[in-house]
Amino acid sequence: MAYASKFLLLIALVAAAYNTDALKQKVTRIQFYMHDIVGGPEPTAVRVASRSNFTGQDPIAATFGSIVMMDNPLTVTPNINSTLVGRAQGMYAMSSQQKEFSLLMTLTYAFTSGPYNGSTFSVLGRNPVMNEVREMPVVGGTGKFRLARGYCLARSYSMKEMDAVIGYNVTLLH
């Protein structure tokens, strides 16, 4: 009986130690800039669907339902010629019919160089574009960010016509 009790105690201690290690999560903070290039000879974001049956005057409502596919460069500074660290690949859709211009973002941020080379994280959420700071959820990841969750804060750095540079501050738990 004493042997069985000691054995159960040993199993309980091992399980407790394992669970404690499993609960420790790494926090990673990343900053980068995304270049959303809609115009020019080599756009990185292209509208693939739009509505054809709109007859009103509201320019926001006119874009409702439009879908844009993107493969945007990610750089370390706002300068497009700074070090390329990855690509933002996915789509965004115009999701507002009212006064606020908002997008539904479904993107994967894929890192192609640096310490996170080969790793990705994905964002799925609402982006009210005209807000100074927009918070969107991180819903998963691969590589160094496997099973990641967290959030990203997006701030428009610059806008020229429809081309934009957006700064991202990302906090990941993984």
How would you portray this structure in words?
The protein has one domain (25-173): AOC barrel-like, CATH 2.40.480. Helix content is 16%, strand content 49%. It has helices at 2-23, 59-63; strands at residues 27-36, 45-49, 67-75, 84-94, 102-111, 120-128, 134-142, 149-160, 163-173. The chain starts with a helix and ends with a strand. It is α+β, with helices and mostly antiparallel strands and 174 residues long. It has two helices and nine strands; from the N terminus they run H-E-E-H-E-E-E-E-E-E-E.
Summarize the structure.
Homodimer. The chain has 174 residues and is α+β, with helices and mostly antiparallel strands.
Please outline the helices and strands.
Blueprint: H1 2-23, E1 27-36, E2 45-49, H2 59-63, E3 67-75, E4 84-94, E5 102-111, E6 120-128, E7 134-142, E8 149-160, E9 163-173
Antiparallel strand pairs: 1-3, 1-9, 2-3, 3-4, 4-5, 5-6, 6-7, 7-8, 8-9
Family: Belongs to the plant dirigent protein family.
Main location: secreted
Keywords: Apoplast, Secreted, Signal
Short descriptors:
single chain, 174 residues, alpha+beta, AOC barrel-like, 8-stranded antiparallel β-barrel, Dirigent, apoplast, signal, secreted
N- and C-termini, Cα separation: 42 Å
Tell me the structural class. alpha+beta
Estimate percent helicity: 10-25%
CATH architecture heading: Beta Barrel
The CATH homologous superfamily is named Allene oxide cyclase-like
Number of strands: 9
Unreliable spans: none
Q: What is the N-to-C order of secondary-structure elements (H for helix, E for strand)?
A: HEEHEEEEEEE
CATH class: Mainly Beta
What average pLDDT do the residues reach?
Answer: 91
Biggest β-sheet, characterized?
Answer: 8 strands, antiparallel, barrel
In DSSP terms, counting alpha (H) and pi (I) runs of 4 or more, how many helices? 2
Proportion of residues in β-strands: over 45%
Taken together, the total number of domains comes to: 1
Q: Radius of gyration from the CA trace? A: 22 Å
Say what the CATH topology is.
AOC barrel-like
Shape estimate: globular
Instruction: For the largest sheet, list the strands in their spatial order.
Output: 1-3-4-5-6-7-8-9
Subunit structure: Homodimer.
Protein name: Dirigent protein
Subcellular location: Secreted, Extracellular space, Apoplast
Signal peptide: 1-16
